[in-house]
């Protein structure tokens, strides 16, 4: 019984706790993959590694005198490759912005932690879990104490026959920040509406003021502000 708990119980409990801690941080921030998802990813990785390292229980013979034995490292490669499809599911595009990259990375990380626990490398696994929590939580708290800059993808629409609107919009966008980059210009609705996109780095606290400056430009019929987030 003691051997069973040491061989199987300790890795599974470690996977549950590590996945729960990292998933709780993602859940608290309202990300697509949260508490339960991270636990299941870490737990499944541990189960598969335990199965691959316990080959004596399922080794079989194909021909007399020959046995099929799997390489545990192949299982690790398969797990990390397969988890990539799940990670891709939490990355999504909103307008010109890409979201969910950090959550995808945390899922990939808990999968790696599960492999380490399943292989019996507990100290390495827990060191990785603590380092991951430090990156996700502690560094986020530190970043709040420094001026926060946000990359914003902006699309503004105005009537094509409104003269001077494009220059007025750019003046409104660059007020207090010269880091403006044009990305796309289109004519829509049979050439009656201009739609132009920019990328701008601003303070996150200035988004409301930025929206008000764009709204006050004569001729503007609509706009979208899409702050980038992880």
What does it look like?
The model has no long low-confidence stretch (mean pLDDT 80). The protein contains 7 helices and 8 strands, in the order H-H-E-E-H-E-E-H-H-E-H-E-E-H-E. It folds into 2 domains: 2-144, no CATH class; 149-227, Alpha-Beta Plaits. With 230 residues, it is of the alpha+beta class. A hairpin with a 2-residue loop joins strand 3 (92-94) and strand 4 (97-99). It has helices at 2-28, 35-53, 72-89, 101-118, 122-144, 165-174, 207-215, and strands spanning 60-61, 67-68, 92-94, 97-99, 149-159, 180-188, 193-203, 220-227. 26% of the residues are buried. The protein has a 4-stranded antiparallel sheet, with helices on one face. Strands 1-2 form a two-stranded antiparallel sheet. A two-stranded antiparallel sheet has the order 3-4. The longest helix has 27 residues, at 2-28.
Brief summary:
This protein has 230 residues and is of the alpha+beta class. The protein is built from seven helices and eight strands, in the order ααββαββααβαββαβ.
């Amino acid at each position: 019984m003691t051997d069973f708990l040491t061989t199987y119980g300790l890795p599974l409990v470690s996977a549950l706790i590590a996945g729960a801690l990292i998933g709780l941080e993602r859940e608290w921030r309202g990300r697509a993959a949260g508490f339960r998802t991270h636990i299941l990813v870490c737990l499944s990785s541990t189960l598969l590694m335990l199965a691959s390292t316990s080959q004596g229980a399922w080794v079989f013979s194909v021909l007399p005198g020959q046995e099929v034995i799997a390489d545990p490292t192949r299982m690790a490669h398969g797990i990390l490759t397969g988890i990539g499809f799940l990670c891709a599911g939490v990355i999504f595009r909103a307008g010109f912005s890409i979201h969910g990259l950090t959550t995808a990375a945390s899922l990939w990380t808990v999968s790696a932690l599960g492999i380490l626990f399943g292989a019996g490398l507990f100290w390495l696994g827990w060191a990785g879990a603590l380092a991951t929590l430090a990156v996700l939580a502690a560094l986020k708290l530190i970043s709040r104490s420094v001026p926060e800059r946000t990359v914003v993808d902006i699309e503004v629409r105005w009537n094509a026959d409104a003269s001077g609107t494009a220059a007025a919009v750019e003046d409104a966008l660059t007020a207090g920040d010269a880091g403006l980059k044009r990305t796309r210009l289109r004519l829509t609705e049979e050439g009656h509406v201009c739609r132009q996109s920019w990328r701008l780095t601003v303070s996150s606290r200035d988004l409301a003021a930025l929206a008000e400056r764009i709204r006050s430009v004569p001729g503007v019929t609509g706009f979208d502000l899409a702050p980038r987030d992880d």
